[in-house]
């Protein structure tokens, strides 16, 4: 049934890149902008046109919840960066990685606030459309986010971490929907990536380039020949090339194309490097500064509170009465 519904020459959006595996399996990679209505439509159109056997999205198990949450809930969650979320991020990823994750969430919240749109709409559309295609499987193709953050933090020097955190903390430039849609143009995107590489090359390597490799691996794993059902055991086995749709951010498409025909070392990009001496020192210094500021803040608040209480007329009256009631020598 699915084979009959497939078109020989599917009418695909311009954001789709076609790749062919060694066994003839076809992969249609939809490059998306994560805050984009057009990207949602591109994903829906591609899945309906090619009727895939597998849909692979740029998500990991730590972000899978966004697939089943409604838009209003996601919009509220994306806007709220709370202390509880910070504690959860620190417990899950460690202090430095957790703080970095919260800073990046702040960036996402900033875009959400500017556009009034929750992130990941194209992934939710992919999930819905995949469920409508007979026997279509849905795969999570991204590297686990704790691994990405820990490798990113380990790759940066102390001052690079400070510089990056400072820039993310004070992000306030207005963003329009036209800005997001322009990100679907490769020339603009490559210019943005070039600027990022120039300032934080190690960050680009861990957050973008390594995930390009992981996503390529996930797509190649999904693009395997499929065995057709047999009417009886006597009937010979017959395998056909599979059809896969990948839904990834446009920034990953060039890397996936580059890595498609190369040997990939997945184990290397899944290991967490041990912290360097400078990293351990900076982490201890950060903890000491944090607890020092916390202690000073509590001391200052306590001192101010005591002074305020003592200055109240009721307190002054009670102290005066207590002084008068004291027995004289």
From TrEMBL:
Q: Do you know which InterPro entries this protein is assigned to?
A: TraB/PrgY/GumN_fam, TraB_PrgY-like
What is the protein name for this chain?
TraB domain-containing protein
What species is given as this protein's source? Marmota monax (Woodchuck)
């Amino acid at each position: 049934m699915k084979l009959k519904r497939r078109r020989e020459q599917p009418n695909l959006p311009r954001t789709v890149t076609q790749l062919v595996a060694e066994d003839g399996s076809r992969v249609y990679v939809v490059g998306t902008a994560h805050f984009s209505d057009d990207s949602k439509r591109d994903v829906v159109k591609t899945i309906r046109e090619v009727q895939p056997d597998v849909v692979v999205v740029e998500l990991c198990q730590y972000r899978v919840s966004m697939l089943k949450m409604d838009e209003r809930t996601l919009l509220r969650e994306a806007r709220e960066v709370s202390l509880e979320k910070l504690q959860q991020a620190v417990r899950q990823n460690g202090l430095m990685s957790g703080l970095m994750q919260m800073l990046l969430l702040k960036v996402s919240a900033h875009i959400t606030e500017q556009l009034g749109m929750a992130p990941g709409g194209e992934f939710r559309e992919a999930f819905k459309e995949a469920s409508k295609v007979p026997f279509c499987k849905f795969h999570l193709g991204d590297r686990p986010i704790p691994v990405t953050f820990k490798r990113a933090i380990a790759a940066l020097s102390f001052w690079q971490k400070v510089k990056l955190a400072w820039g993310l903390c004070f992000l306030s430039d207005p963003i329009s929907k036209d800005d997001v849609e322009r990100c679907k143009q490769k020339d603009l995107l490559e210019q943005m990536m070039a600027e990022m590489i120039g300032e934080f090359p190690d960050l680009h390597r861990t957050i973008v380039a390594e995930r390009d490799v992981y996503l390529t691996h996930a797509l190649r794993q999904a693009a395997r020949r499929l065995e057709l059902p047999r009417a009886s055991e006597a009937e010979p086995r017959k395998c056909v090339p599979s059809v896969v749709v990948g839904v990834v951010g446009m920034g990953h498409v060039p890397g996936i194309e580059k890595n498609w025909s190369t040997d990939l070392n997945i184990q290397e990009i899944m290991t967490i490097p041990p912290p360097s001496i400078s990293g351990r020192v900076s982490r201890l210094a950060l903890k000491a500064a944090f607890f020092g500021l916390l202690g000073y803040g509590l001391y200052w608040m306590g001192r101010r509170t005591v002074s305020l209480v003592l200055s109240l007329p009721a307190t002054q009256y009670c102290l005066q009465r207590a002084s008068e009631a004291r027995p004289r020598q």
